[in-house]
């Protein structure tokens, strides 16, 4: 991969074979994609250790002597937990919930294993290995066999205590758990409550299972759920846990006819907060999510992408100005630090790819920062070290995942620990 070229032809971590194409092109393209993508494994997932071994070998995930160990592990593993599709969670009691900040104590981090995207297994393994020493990890798969394979893959790497990793079978349409996963807040008693948002941002892909995921997970965990009639993804919400919510204007685009006042009213029906900050969104980027523009390091420190390059320079500049000119809900001015902005490139002449260092995860004293094997990586890590000197800054290789529109933050979802009051 030539990381400096504007036109690139990199792996696309999306189920392109499921997409709705005009003029009957889907039936033509699907077999052509089979050699490049995991079409066959989607239509006919492995159902035995031998079939899984063939898949792992075909895509070079486990090779050589490690394969024998992996197959033995797959055959001997106990079955993963399986959620019930018919289970219904209990309704949440009246009252708003507080969205904790990411720097508060985290109980577990959720990931959806990229079973159908072999080039992403390494990236997800890095995230699991970085999180597990400080929090438990819950890995979702669509079948028990994928859970066995993911566990075997992690075991062959010998870099994680698997007692910290929980595997749960819960089918989803894709891997971007930040956006469709449960938004979990804390009620006045410090207990967890799941707020169910509406997830359906991409009309060209099936997303019914993703939209059902939060309720199904909450039922499995026996957590109460409050439904919020709002089209909003988890990647478009930052909270400082102290009364400030930060969203991009994509929240208004996703809910046609809704004004800022209407958005505030809807948010206030579920969340306990005092101030809403709306930022611009990246133009030409599919999600419009705020986590591609900025990251909260703490309640008074915000990291923003530098206004560089031709595209979106004004939107990035305006984002910085917003935080230079406003304060948080407690009336405290922000300290604004700039992260480098990697150059935009066009993948397969169709997909604009925005790489951003703001798409990072804070978890119990660690920060998982996406890096892209480009010259600005070290400068970005240094900004994080300056902004969060009491945290361990851990780079996660995200060059492949960025072609799907996100990085570490988009691919994880933290759950704050219950608080006894």
How would you sum up this structure, described in words?
- The structure is a single chain.
- The chain is α/β, with parallel strands linked by helices.
- It has a single domain, classed as 5-stranded Propeller (L-arginine/glycine Amidinotransferase, Chain A).
- The protein is 28% helix and 22% strand.
- It has a five-stranded mixed beta sheet.
- Helix 3 runs antiparallel to helix 4 and helix 4 packs across helix 6 (144-157).
- The mean pLDDT is 95.
Brief summary of the model shown:
28% of the residues lie in helices and 22% in strands.
Can you tag this structure with a few keywords?
421 residues; L-arginine/glycine Amidinotransferase, Chain A; 20 strands; 28% helix
How are the SSEs ordered, and which strands pair?
Layout: E1 7-8, H1 25-33, H2 39-43, H3 49-58, H4 65-76, E2 81-82, E3 106-112, H5 121-131, E4 136-141, H6 144-157, E5 165-169, H7 177-180, E6 183-186, E7 192-198, H8 208-221, E8 225-231, E9 238-239, E10 244-248, H9 250-253, H10 260-270, E11 275-279, E12 294-298, E13 301-305, H11 313-325, E14 335-339, E15 345-347, E16 351-353, E17 361-363, E18 366-371, H12 377-387, E19 392-397, E20 413-416
Helix pairs in contact: 3-4, 4-6
């Amino acid at each position: 991969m030539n990381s400096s070229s504007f036109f690139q032809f990199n792996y696309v971590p999306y189920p392109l074979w499921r997409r709705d194409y005009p003029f009957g092109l889907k039936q033509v393209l699907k077999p052509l994609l089979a050699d490049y993508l995991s079409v066959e494994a989607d239509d006919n997932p492995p159902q035995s250790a031998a079939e899984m071994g063939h898949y792992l070998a075909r895509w070079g995930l486990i090779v050589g002597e490690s394969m024998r160990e992996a197959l033995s592990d797959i055959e001997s593993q106990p079955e993963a937990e399986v959620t019930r599709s018919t289970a219904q969670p209990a309704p949440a009691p009246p009252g708003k919930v507080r969205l904790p900040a990411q720097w508060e104590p985290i109980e577990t981090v959720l990931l959806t294993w990229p079973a159908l995207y072999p080039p992403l297994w390494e990236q997800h393994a890095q995230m699991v290995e970085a999180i597990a020493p400080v929090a438990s990890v819950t890995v979702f798969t669509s079948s028990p066999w994928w859970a066995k394979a993911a566990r075997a893959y992690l075991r062959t790497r010998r870099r994680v205590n698997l007692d910290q990793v929980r595997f749960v079978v819960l089918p989803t349409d894709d891997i971007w758990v930040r956006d469709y996963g449960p938004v979990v807040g804390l009620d006045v008693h410090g207990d967890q409550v799941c707020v169910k948002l509406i997830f359906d941002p991409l009309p060209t892909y099936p997303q019914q299972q993703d939209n059902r995921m939060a309720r199904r997970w909450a039922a499995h965990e026996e957590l109460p759920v409050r439904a919020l009639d709002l089209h909003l993804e988890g990647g478009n919400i930052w909270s400082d846990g102290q009364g400030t919510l930060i969203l991009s204007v994509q929240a208004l685009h996703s809910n046609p006819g809704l004004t800022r006042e209407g958005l505030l009213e809807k948010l206030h029906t579920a969340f306990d907060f005092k101030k809403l900050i709306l930022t611009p969104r990246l133009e030409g980027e599919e999600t419009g999510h705020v986590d591609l523009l900025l990251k909260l390091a703490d309640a008074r420190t915000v990291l923003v992408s530098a206004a560089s390059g031709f595209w979106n320079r004004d939107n990035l500049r305006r984002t910085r100005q917003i935080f230079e000119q406003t304060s948080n809900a407690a009336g405290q001015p922000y300290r604004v630090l700039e992260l480098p902005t990697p150059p935009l490139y066009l993948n397969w002449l169709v997909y604009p790819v925005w790489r951003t260092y703001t798409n990072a995860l804070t978890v119990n004293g660690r920060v998982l920062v996406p890096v892209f094997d480009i010259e600005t990586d070290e400068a970005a890590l240094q900004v994080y070290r300056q902004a969060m000197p009491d945290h361990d800054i851990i780079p996660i290789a995200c060059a492949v995942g960025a072609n799907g529109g996100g990085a570490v933050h988009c691919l994880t979802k933290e759950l704050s620990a219950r608080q006894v009051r």
